[in-house]
Design a protein that fits this description.
- Chains A, B: Pfam families: Pyridox_ox_2 (PF12900).
- 2 copies of one chain form a homodimer.
- Chain A has a single domain, classed as Electron Transport, Fmn-binding Protein, Chain A (Pnp Oxidase, Chain A), CATH 2.30.110.10.
- In chain A, 20% of the residues lie in helices and 40% in strands.
- Chain A has helices at 20-28, 66-72, 115-129, 142-147, 204-209; strands at residues 16-17, 32-39, 42-53, 56-62, 77-89, 97-112, 148-163, 181-189, 193-194.
- A 6-stranded antiparallel beta barrel of chain A has the order 2-3-4-7-6-5.
- Chain A is globular, with a radius of gyration of 21 Å.
- The interface between A and B is large, with 95 and 95 residues.
- β8 (181-189) of chain A pairs antiparallel with β9 (193-194) of chain B.
Chain lengths: 215, 215
């Protein structure tokens, strides 16, 4: 993807990547996006689940959602996904930071009405939350599909930004008697909690997520 | 905060909270926000560090940042903060969800130019990343303050939305031979990695974060 003015990273340019593979890697590592668009000059930033399909992001919500319907009208939108990987603790306040991977995507959304495509997309959302889970649960029925507004957001421009590694203290600060370093941060999953009315063992998707440590 | 049209939650209203305490609790649990605003009709959603001070959110960036300067002009902005607490695995695709806490804030930003306030704010950012860390590191000097654009975003309206608990399957699905439940998710910190040129032991802030398990 060529860099143009809308998504070109201007600050700390050495952290920016425009290749689709770099953008997709950040997107595929998550399922929660922050979706921004304006309605009558008022910006909204709404957390939404997403699933990537090629160079599109699938979004869904209730057919009754006012904000989803605005987005479905094809207004310019911006979708951002971020992962924090660590706390960067420098000798100076100024150089404190976090390690992160983030993507900012620009584009517009179109509605998907075909029921087969909608059903497939809902399955992809399930697998985006937990790979393999869609095959372990019931597909959407006609009423559920009718209640769902499915949007396909076409990524027109995107950039990824990644910070990793240790603090970058000023040379003059390195001799100060102050600790500096990184505290890595990651997402961890706890033991599965079955629904009250469920006495089955956790399925393969959950066992894989938890490293086989589940009873 | 009274509910008016801009921030009134319309979908799944039982998850919405408008009290300042509920909003602040979600904000205080994080340090990464997604900040949205439009420039010439193009929406931007940018991940930024933040620190709450009363009913304001402090934001900062480089004085050279084009986007920060746009925000500093007082354009309408929307700031969203989200935490994911678990994967909600239902018997149907349709009822899959995540447990989360999120806040959406509406307001505008003003620039803070006073160097004393700027220095205090930069210290607050450090403590937002890791409580107690500001006192363990060097305060910002005159040049660093001059290079920093500090914004005070005044929260005019806000709502918090929280989902917790197990899946809410349709009664007709509860007899299906399918596992349903929740996999809790949380942020965990790993062992501190000192900077290459640092041979001091981890400071109290890091030891507290890691539960005293650090060497």
């Amino acid at each position: 993807m060529p860099a143009n003015s809308r998504h070109q990273v201007r600050r700390t340019k050495e952290r920016a990547q425009y290749e689709a593979a770099a953008v997709h890697a950040v997107l595929d590592a998550g399922f929660l996006a922050h979706v921004g668009f304006s309605v009558d000059g008022q910006p909204f930033v709404i957390p939404m689940l997403y699933a990537r399909e090629g160079n599109d992001l699938l979004l869904h919500g209730s057919i009754a959602s006012r904000l989803m319907r605005n987005l479905a009208e094809g207004v310019p939108a911006c979708i951002s996904v971020s992962h924090v990987d660590g706390l960067v603790l420098a000798r100076s306040h100024f150089h404190h930071s976090v390690n992160y991977r983030s993507v900012v995507c620009f584009g517009t959304a179109v509605t998907v009405d075909d029921p087969v495509q909608k059903a497939q997309a809902l399955a992809r959302f399930v697998d985006a939350i937990l790979p393999g889970r869609a095959a372990e649960s019931r597909e959407s029925d006609r009423n559920e599909l009718a209640a769902t507004l499915l949007l396909r957001f076409r990524i027109e421009d995107a950039s990824a930004k990644v910070r990793s590694g240790g603090p970058r203290d000023d040379p003059a600060d390195r001799g100060l008697p102050l600790w500096a370093g990184v505290v890595p941060q990651e997402v961890r999953f706890g033991a599965a909690i079955p629904a009250e009315d469920c006495d089955l063992p956790p399925p393969p998707s959950v066992q894989r997520l938890l490293g086989g440590a589940q009873p």
